[in-house]
Design brief:
Elements lengths: L1 H5 L2 E5 L26 E9 L13 H12 L3 E8 H13 L5 E8 L1 E2 L4 E2 L8 E9 L6 E7 L9 E2 L1 E7 L3 E7 L5 H23 L4 E6 L18 E5 L4 E6 L2 E9 L9 E8 L10
Parallel strand pairs: 2-3, 11-12
Antiparallel strand pairs: 1-8, 2-16, 3-7, 4-7, 5-6, 5-9, 8-10, 10-11, 12-14, 13-14, 15-16
Length: 287
């Protein structure tokens, strides 16, 4: 399965398909060729919904609670872990309702199942994995979607952990992942490879863009191993006080982190942060 894990998938999709993008929030300024670029403000929400139906944390209520949070908080980018494929479609409808006048888009990447060589499945038979939601100004420009499996996996776990990224017109690379839960050293290796190899490879092919990664990394600040050891130079990170993190390149300002109560619907709180992307900064972070 090693070859399958490393060969990540690239898709150029139109809005009619399941895609992800990072758009400007309603009311944000649009830059033209004669004006100085205005900062783009994005509210990012990370959720782990434990919605496979197979895990002990499953309640059957997390999708409803996620919809309530999206309606109340109106995030511009939502990163989703432990979801079924149709969960993305259901939450995209809610997301679109709070971003009227914009184009809501979504993407999904299934986790692999080592024994079968196919997708990991939820109890309802749908593929299980990670997803993204956001909105864009127009549906006209195709967006590149990247997804795949981490080359290092915990062989004691039949689930092959996956990752998902979307490059939106070279303006932002929005990503999510859910790292190994049964082998923390494996999670550290996956984290390092994603940030040190996979994302730079995408940027090398598509052109540099600021990066935002939200996900359940199953690593803690101050833990053993420590999540800080997989945050490379040129990146910054915030967390929920536990295993959910938002990582960004230095041309993104991370601000105003807070936890969002999920009222027992899942075993993780929501992690909400505000990001500012300064259009006047150079195209690459300081070295």
């Amino acid at each position: 399965m090693a070859d399958r894990s490393f060969r990540f998938l690239r898709r150029a999709l139109a809005v009619g398909c399941l895609i992800a993008a990072a758009g400007l929030p309603a009311g944000a300024s649009v830059t033209n060729s004669t004006d100085a670029a205005e900062p783009t403000i994005l509210r990012v929400l990370q959720l782990n919904l434990c919605n496979s139906g197979r895990a002990g944390c499953y309640t059957g209520r997390s999708l409803t609670r996620a919809a309530e949070v999206i309606s109340a908080e109106a995030p511009d980018l939502v990163t989703l872990n432990e979801i079924c494929r149709d969960d993305v479609t259901a939450l995209e409808r809610v997301f679109a309702a709070v971003h009227t006048g914009r184009v809501a888009v979504s993407a999904f990447q299934a986790a692999g199942d080592r024994p079968s060589g196919a997708d990991t499945r939820c109890r309802n038979g749908q593929p299980y994995g990670v997803g993204l939601l956001t909105h864009v100004r127009t549906p006209d420009t195709p967006r590149a979607v990247y997804g795949g499996f981490h080359p290092t996996q915990d062989v004691a776990d039949p689930e092959e952990r996956s990752w998902l990224c979307v490059d939106v017109d070279g303006a932002l690379l929005a990503c999510t992942t859910h790292l190994a839960a049964t082998g923390y050293r494996v999670a550290l290796t996956q984290c390092r490879h994603l940030l040190d190899t996979i994302l730079p490879t995408i940027r090398g092919r598509a052109g540099y863009a600021p990066v935002v990664l939200g996900g359940d990394l199953n690593l803690r600040d101050g833990g053993d191993p420590d999540v800080r050891s997989c945050t490379p130079p040129g990146h910054q990170r915030i967390d929920d006080g536990a295993v959910q993190h938002i990582v960004a390149t230095l041309d993104v300002t991370l601000c105003c982190r807070r936890s969002v109560a999920m009222h027992g619907a899942t075993d993780h709180p929501g992690l909400l942060a505000t990001l500012s992307i300064d259009g006047n900064r150079p195209g690459r972070p300081p070295t």
